[in-house]
Amino acid sequence: MDLVGAMAGMKVTMAISTSWNVLRDSIAWSIGNDSIAHPLDDVWIPHLGPLRRHLRNSNDVNRSILFADLVDQTGKLDMSKLTTIMNSEVIPHIISTKSHDGSDVDDSLFWRESSEHSFEIKLAYARLTEPTGRTNSKSGSTSGLLTFLNSVADYFFHLNLEGWLSVNLLSCATVTQWNLNWPTLFAPTLWQIWKNRNDEVFSNISHLINVVCNRSITWARYHAERNKPPAPAKVSDSIHTHWNRPKQGRLCLNVDGAVSTQTGVGTTGGVFRDCEGSWLLGFSKTIGMAQLLQTELWAIYIGLQVAWEQGFELLLIQTDSLQAVHLLEAKNALSSSLFLVRAIDKLRRKAWITNIQWTPRRNNAPADALAKLAVSSDHSTTIYREPPTALLRLLDIDKINLLLT
C-alpha cells in the first residue's frame, strides 16, 4: 500500500475508533454451530447483554460452558440445566431462541438495530447522532457524526465540482428515513447552504445547522408531493377477503404469532386444512419473551416440523407477515444471520414441496385464534386433533366463503 493509501486507512481507522463504543453496542452474535461466540461472555440476546451477569450462583462467575452444554440429546434446550445455571427471569428470553445445531453455519455478527439484522444507513445515522447512549428523543446532537465525517472527508471526496454534482443529481439512491430519493433532497440542501452563506456574508446572520437541514427536508418533501403520480384506484375490499384454498391435492398451513402487550410473552399457532377447508390438525406453543417477527418465524418453523412428522408432502404455508415471506424467499436465506430463517430454509430443502404465501390478516383468523390459546406457562407444543370450540365458527365462515366463490 502506498503512503497516501496508508495515511487514508489510518485516518479512517482513527475516526471509526472514536465511535467504537457506539458501534460495538450496535452489534451482537448470531449463534450458528457454536464455533466462535461464548454463551456467557458474548452478546447474543441483545437486550440482556452478556449472560454471565445473570448466573444463578455467583460462585459460577468463572464457569466456562458451550452452547452444546445447554441442550439435551435431541438438540432441544435442557430446562433442568438452564434453571440450575441461570436466573429464572432470563430463561423465557433464552428459550425463545433456536437450540444448538452443530451442522449450522459459523457464528457471525449482525446489526442489532434492525429486526432483520441488516445494516441500514438510516439506523446507523440515528445511532451515531444520539447525544449519549440510547435515547427516545427525536432530535439528537449531530456533533459525533460531523466530527467523524469531517475527519475523513479529504479521503472520500475526490471528484471535481461538476462530477460531484452529476453523481449526486443523477443518483438513484433513496433516503429511507424521509422516503425521498437522494437528488430530491440533495438539490434543496445545496440551495439552503448557499442561502445560509449569503445571509452570513451580507447580513451577518448565521443559522444553526439543524435549521438548514430542516428547511432542506421541508422543500424536498414539498417537491416530492407536488410531483407524486396520482394514486391508483382503490381495490375493492371485497376482493380476497376470504381464506385462499390450496390447489387440489395440496394441504394448507395457516400460521400466526402473537405477543402479549402485558407480559411480552410470544405465542404461536397453526392450522392444517385440505383444499375443501376441512380440519386436519392444529398446534399452539408458547415460545418465551419475543418480538413479533420472531413469533411469526417460530410459527412457520414449528408448523414445518409438525408437517414433516405427519408426512404432509405438498404444503402451502400462509402467513400474514410479509416481512417473514421476504426473508424466507431471499436467495441468501440459508446464510441469513437470523437463526430461524436458516432453520426454516434447511427444513424446506428436504424431500417435499413447500410454498410460502402472504395472506391478509383478516384471512388468517383461525391461526390467530389458535396462537392466543397457547398456555403461557407451558413451553411444549400442543397438538389439536380436533378443532377447539373457539375456532369452530371461524372455520365454518371460511368453508361458507369457499362455497360462495
Automatic annotation (TrEMBL):
| All residue ranges annotated as the RNase H type-1 domain in the record | 254-374
> Which parts pass through the membrane?
none
Q: Molecular function terms in GO for this entry?
A: nucleic acid binding; RNA-DNA hybrid ribonuclease activity
Q: What is the name of this protein?
A: RNase H type-1 domain-containing protein
Entries under Pfam families matching the protein: RVT_3
The record's listing under SUPFAM superfamilies reads: Ribonuclease H-like
Matching entries from InterPro entries are given as:
RNase_H-like (IPR053151), RNase_H-like_dom_plant (IPR044730), RNaseH-like_sf (IPR012337), RNaseH_domain (IPR002156), RNaseH_sf (IPR036397)
